[in-house]
Structure formats: C-alpha cells, structure tokens
Amino acid sequence: MAVFSQKKSPEPSIPAPATSAVANQSSLIGNTLLIKGEVFSDDEILIEGKVQGSINVKNRLVIGVNGNVEAEINAREVVIKGRVTGNVKGGQRVEIVSSGVLHGNINAPRVVIADSGVFEGNIEMHGRDEKGKGREDAPAAQSHKGTGEDAQPHKGTGEATQPHKGTGEATQPADAGEHHSPYLKSKK
User: Fold this and answer.
1) What does pTM read for this prediction?
2) How many CA within 13 A on the CB side of residue 151?
3) Residues with Cβ < 8 Å from 88, sequence gap 6 or more?
4) Domain residues for 111?
C-alpha cells in the first residue's frame, strides 16, 4: 500500500504572462463578424470574417483562410490566405499563399504568389527608394574620377568608352568607324 504525501508548495500559483500578446499586439475580426466601412489600425490585424470598404493598417494585415474582404487595402505587409476583391497596396510586401485568392491590382516592392494561389489583376512593383535609384538612372557619358574628362560616346554604338589608365585619353576600338552585322557578309 502506497502512501501519498500532500505537501503544498509555499509559492502561490501565478499564471504565466502572455508575452506574445503583449509583444505582438494584434486584433482579430472573427468568423461571424461583418464590418462595413473603414478599418484603421496601427497594430496587426487578422481577418477571419468579412470586411467591406477600406482597410488601412500601419503594420501587418493577414486575411485568414475564412476571411472574405471586399475592400481597398493599404498596409505595410499583406498576407492573403482567404479571398480578397479590391486593390492591395503593400509598403514592403504582398503575399498570396496557396489557399489565397486576389481579384484586384497589387502595388508593392515585393510580391510573392504561391504555386496554387489565385491572382487576377495587375502588379506594379516599385523598386528601391530614391537613394539607390541615382546610380541606375545616370547617363552613359559621365565624368570619370581621376581624369577630370568626360567619356566620349563610341561612334556607331552610343556607348561611352573608358579612359586609358596611363594617358587619360578615351580609347576607341580598332574598328571605330565600321559597323558589323551578323546579316551582312564581309567582302574580302
């Protein structure tokens, strides 16, 4: 026969704090909830119900598998697992997972569409901010460091030639005046 001791611990039982709820605040629009109008939030929103109108979220917006949205969406990041009808603007990213359906246009720097995801509309992907844009949009003939001279465009191609390291003069290909075409046969 076994004897069980019933010692009580001296410390009271305190429920553990919900760190995920405090650190990552989010709002839930449940399955049976219907919202008509405008939705604004600084925090993350998970939509499992139905929303009609417009949605503006400064954080992440997730349309759950049961979510049905007929709205213009503007959020930092948008993840579509349910059904969306309307244009979506993502400040950083828009993702359509395999169960997601989007009928509308996307405007975001990064777009991810899973294999089975459904998308009908147009995508406008804007690149980096203006800081990184300057290098790509620079004209072909620009000042070369160290020489102080501008490169001259190559006759016939319009491409800028690079200065010779020792002289600072722009180099020209040996056939600078000739044009070559794969369709023209040379006469020798």
Assistant:
1) 0.57
2) 21
3) 73, 78, 80, 94, 102, 104, 105, 106, 107, 108
4) 26-125
